[in-house]
Structure formats: structure tokens, C-alpha cells
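thread: overnight batch results

M.L. [08:02]
morning all. the overnight job finished for the chain we discussed friday. pasting input first so we're all looking at the same thing
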Amino acid sequence: MIFTNARLKKFLGAFILTCYLLFSGRAALVGAPILPVFFTDNTASTGTSPEITEMEAALLSRINSAQSTIDLAIYDFNRDSIRDALIAAHNRGVQVRVVTDDEAREHIASYIPYYAALESAGIAIVDDDRANDIMHNKVIIIDKFLVWTGSTNQTDNGYTKNHNNSIVITDTAIAELYTTEFNQMFEDGKFSVKKDQLITTTFDYNGVDLDIHFSPEGNVMDAIIAEVDAAQEEIAFAIFFFTSDPLRDALINAKNRGVRVRGVWDNLGASNAYSDDEALCEANIPIKIENYKGKMHNKTMVIDPGTSKGVVVTGSVNWTNAGFFENDENTIIIHDSTVATLYKEDFDMLYDTLPAELACVEEEIVVTPSNPTVYLPMVINPADPNAEPTPTATPTVAPTATPAPTQTPTPEPEAKIELVRIVYNPDGDDVENELVEITNSGDLAADMMGYVLQDETGNTYTFPTFTLEPASTVTVWVKVGTDDMTNLFWGRGGSVWNNSGDTAFILDEVDGNIIDSCSYLGGEVEASCQ
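M.L. [08:03]
and the structure it wrote out:
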């Protein structure tokens, strides 16, 4: 067989990918997928690690092979290897351009030096410079030919602690579409609803239909609901935040017409007062809430895996109004049975590693009554089968001694951190007057250094060295100011708390567990959390 350079590259690429899938266990009983897909393997993770992961190595090899251009639309960023690879690419003459979110770039302490390092190296960065809505994409376009997308942020958490997926598309027309979206932000300075409307585009990618959608200008929510409505056998999803009631209703309708529906939810996302996990549980849809060290950060849905109509939905968008209608996001819908099988295998691994007691719907369990009725065994007379059976002797049951009452233990003293109120739409300037009040209603002082105050979209304030005494309250202001015993200052240039509704979370400093949360619908000046 005679190979041109292009054919040889394509053959070798397919061969290497097939070997990877076979030896990594991802191939299972399916052939090599038309699209390379990567999943994190963090179910046993106890924290972040600097070690290069399989997914990370795959991206680094592509960045290191770039010849002319690398465009990145990224959100969180603190991974050393990615920073160094981008600077190296820039230094060898590759044009590197970055679009990001202003809050991630300017107000999250762990990300600031990484964006600054790129800028110091001469790499151009444009951020969205706006409050509330976020530039939430995780897209990398290389040499105007390759697109890397999915749920993975370029962070230590993203690769070594959270649960994510990434997918690679190599196609000039698809890369051009993503570049057009990128240029609206980088060159035109248009973000969110200010971007031009783009028609949802379907590509024939080597015989596979790929539907590409961008938020908020594309009708992403309706596209996902249409796939749910077409499901015939099974739907499995893994999600971070899910508050979209129309999508919730579509899943319930699918279950009611006989489709098997299951889900894995992030613990933080499920704690949102408007999260739809409880409604799905009430509809008898099995949901497991993760208890991993890292976040369930996927935004994936697998429909009818194992059939010729297998579909995968993936990308950066959480299934919320902000994700569908406000943030800058991208979603890809893949109509391919092989890719669907791989995503289903990853879902099964995540679902099966979580204990059954974390499921809101379980197999029916027969419970033995606390005072069961004793049925005596009966003996049939073999000489006369028609005779009445006679009971055997009644067993003697020893009387049960009455247990002595146990003394109720005195509870240990503890701190109890709670949200009191959120002033989200104050009179005058929002930045100047937005605040959150937090109290310690316990009987021990709370060392809050490292605690995190976070909103629904991921804006975070990390507490400095600070102790909250019992029966005391601290106010966390959004604006710039000087901290004291009762006032702390976020130091932001833009507002945090959405006027149309939001959720505040307090996370502890060790494992990121939720200490308290408070949600509001909006329409007022402030929200009471008590």
C-alpha cells in the first residue's frame, strides 16, 4: 500500500490511538472511537499532585507539536506544565492568544501568577471584564485544525483531583467555527449576549454527526432536551450544577415512558437550594451524590449507549440558566455508538464506586419487623397425606431482660459557622454595598483561616488569618477595604451576588466540605439565611 504523508499520519494516529485504548482498558469491547476521548482517574485521589496525568500528557504533546497558532479560551488556570508549555510554544514562534474570565485572572489568588507569567512572556490575554456572567469555556484550538474541549480546567484540581473529560476533534471546518467564536471575544471584545448570533452547526465528521453549540447565542438547552426526548432505552449523566427545570422535566418524562435514567451529582451542586436532584429522586430516578475528595466536574450525558443510536453530550456548560443563557460556554453533541460506549463505561465506574447508601433511590429492601410473629413449623403424616398437619412443640423463649437506660452524653462544645444574610441588590453601587454576614452560633471560637466563601458560579473568597468568636458575626464585603475584627474585604472590582438569584456556600479549609449554604431567588434588596 502506498501512503501519502497525510495518509501515513492518519494511519499512524489511528494505530497509536487503538493501542492506547486497548492497553488502557478504555477500548473494552468496542473499536477505536472516531474521536480521541480522555477521562480523569481520580476516584482514589486524596488531593492534588504535580505528577503528569494521562489526559494532561495528551494535551501537552499537542501543544508541544504546535507549528503556528494556539488559541485558548480557559477559565481556571494554575497548572505548571501547561503554563510552561505555552510559554515554550510562544518562545519558538507560535502565536499564542488567551481569552479568560476577569475574576479568574484578577481576583483568585492561586490563578493570578499563572496568567501574569503568560503576560510577562509576551502572550496576549483578553478577559471579559464584566460582573456576574463568566467566560467559562475550556477550549484550545491548535494550528487552526485541532480542537481540544470538554470539562477540564487547566488546574491541579482539574487534572488530579476532580472528575473530568476531554475530547479532541481534528477538522479544519470545525476549528474555523471555534476560532470564529474565539475571535468574537479576543478581537471584538464581545462576550455573553453581546456576541453575534451563530446558527447551530452540524458537521459530518468522518461519518459521525457532531452538533456544535455555543452559549448563550446557541439554543443549547433545547438541543439537549431534544436528545433526551429521542432517548429510547437509557440515559446516564454526571453533572456539577443542574438547576434547569425544563431539562429536569424532560428526564422525568423519559423515565415515565420506560427509559432507564440514572445520574451522579456533585455534592456542592446538589446542596444548591434550586438543584433538581431532589425532584428527580421524588420521580424515582436513581441519583448518587458523590463523596469523592474532588468535585464531580463533568457535564456529560450518555443516551442509548450500546445501540446504533448512541449519543454523548459534553462540554463546559453546567445545566443552569446561567450556563445556558448568560455565560460563554461550548457544547458538543456526538452521535456515535463507540464514543457513547466509552462515556458509559466511565459513568459506570463513577456510579459503581459510590456506596449504595448515597443513592436517593435504592433497591426495595424487606425490613424485618422489630417484634416478628413466630410461625411454628408443621409436620405432615406420611401415612395419611390428607390428614391435618400438626404443629411441632412450641419452642421455649427465654425472657428478655429490660435494658438499663443509657445516660445521654453531654455534647462536646463546638463552633457552628452559619450564613446570616446576603445583601445582593443594595441601594447605590453594588460593588460598594454588597455583603454577606456570617455568624458563629456555637460555643467555641472558629479558626476560619483557609475557609472559602463561594457563589454559584465559582467566585471565591478565601478567609485570611481570622478567628470568629462564639456569638459573634463577621461581614464579608465585596469591595476593597482594610480587614478588622468584624469586617473582611473581598477586594473585587465587580459585584458578586446576582440580583436574579444565587447561592452562597461556606466551605471548610481541609476537604472543601460544605459548612453552610444559602440560596435566594432575587427581586429584593437582601436575603435572610436564618
